Amino acid sequence: AFKAEFAVWDTPMSFGVNKNSSSANSSTSAAEAVDVAAILARKKAEDLPVDDGSGKLTVWVVKDFKKELVDPAQHGHFFGGDSYILLYTYTKPNSRSEEHIIYFWLGHDSTADEKGAAALLTVQLDDSMGGKPVQVRVTQGKEPAHFRQLFKGNMIVFKGGNASGFSNSNSAAVEQADTALFHIKGTTALNTVAVEVTDRADSLNSDDSFVLVTPSHVYAWQGRGANADELTVATNIATTLAGSYKGTGGREVVTLQEGSEPAEFWEALGGQADYPSSAEGEVVPRDARLFAASTATGTFRVEEVDNFDQSDLNDEDVYLLDTYTQLFVWVGSQSTQQEKEQSLAFAAHYVASADDGRDADIPIIRVTAGGGPRMFSAPLQ
User: Fold this and answer.
1) Are the CB atoms for 113 and 81 separated by under 8 Å?
2) Residue 45 lies in a domain
C-alpha cells in the first residue's frame, strides 16, 4: 500500500503560501523512531529504473540556444559547463506502445542562458510529441539510477564546455589539460559515473576509486574501501580514456592498489598530500510527504495531505511528492494551466527554500496522471 511506505513524518515546513489547518495535523511526530529498514526499501523502489536502458537514445547538447546532435559514439560523455537534452524511447513489457522520457541535464558550470535554453527546448520537444513524454530535470551529480544506467557504466563528466550563447558573454570553451583526475562514484557497475575533479592528491579518498590520466599513462587507482564494481568501472573508464582523451591514444593502463603508487603517480598530482579516509557528502534519505496544489478557491494554495494513500490523488489538481532526494510533480489531466505553471514554479521554490539539510539540486520530475516512470509509480503499488 502507498501509505505503508511513508509512515513517519517531519514537522511540516512553511513555504509562505496559503495552507489550511490540515497541514498542521500530522498524525506522527518527527520525534518518533524511524523504521530504517522501511526507508531503505522505499529508497530502493523510488529509484528503480523503468527498464534496463536498452531502448533508443538520442542526445543533444545546447549550443547558441539550439539543439546540436551528439554523435552516438560520444553518448555518456558530458561537460560540466554545458547542458544536454536526452530523449529515451522504450516499450513496456507486454505492450506495443512506445513510452518516452525527456531528460534535460544541467552541468554545474553551465551558464544561466544554457540552462534556460535547455528547459525551453525540452518543452518544445515535449510539445512536438503531443505532450506525452515524462520530463525529468537533472542536475550534475544528482542523476537518477535510470539516467546513469543508460550508459552502462561509461558515463564520464569532464570539466569545461562551450561558450555561452549570450552575445555579450566573455566566456569561452575550456581546453582540456594534459593531466586529469576522475572520481568514480556509484554503487553498481551500471549506475557508476566518472567525474573529473581537481588533479591534486588531496582530491583522493580511501573509500573510492579514481582514474588519473597523464600524457603517457592512465592509472586506475583503488582505495582500500572501494567496492569491486567501482574498480571494474575505473578499469573500463581508464581503457576508454587511454585511447581517446584529448583525441589521442597510446597511453598505458596501470591498475594500482592504494599504497602501491609509483613516484610518477604522485608527481602527476603535484606531490603527495593528506586526503580523506572516507567519502563525504552521502545523502541520508527521509520519509515522504505529499502536498496538494490547487486554485479551486480562487488563489493558489498548497496544503499537506496527512495519512495519504493512492485515493488522495485528485485528477483535477496537482500534487508534489517529496522523497527528500527527489521531488515529483504529479499533474492531473483536469488541472488548470495556472495550477500546472504555479506548481512547477513552487516546486523549484520549495527545493531552494527547504532548510532541512537537503541538496538544493535534487531532481524535479514532472509526471502526468495515468503515466509516469517506474521511479514514481513503484511506491503506489
Assistant:
1) no
2) no
Task: Tally the domains of the chain.
Answer: 3
End-to-end CA distance of the chain: 6
How does DSSP assign 110-138, residue by residue? --HHHHHHHHHHHHHHHHHTTT-SEEEEE
Q: How many CA atoms lie within 13 A of 14 on its CB side?
A: 5
**Closest listed residue to residue 76, CA positions, set 193, 239, 162:** 193
Is the overall model pTM greater than 0.90, yes or no? no
In a domain, 171, yes or no: no
Between CA 173 and CA 112 the distance in angstroms is 15
Question: CATH number, domain at 254?
Answer: 3.40.20.10
List, in order, residues 6 or more apart from 93 with CB less than 8 Å away.
Answer: none
Last-in-domain residue among 235, 268, 301: 268
Domain range for 332 is: 3-34+287-380
pLDDT digits (tens, 9 = 90+) for 152-208: 889 999 998 864 443 333 444 557 889 999 998 876 777 788 999 999 998 998 878
Tell me whether residue 201 is in a domain: yes
For residue 332, give the C-alpha cell.
492531473
Cα–Cα distance for residue pair 251/263, rounded to 1 Å: 17
Burial, 256: exposed, middle or buried (Cβ in 10 Å; 0-12, 13-18, 19+)?
middle
Closest CA to 213 of 183, 251, 175, 247: 251
Q: What is the DSSP letter of 178?
A: S
Residue 277 lies in a domain: no
- Domain stop point among 158, 188, 203: 158
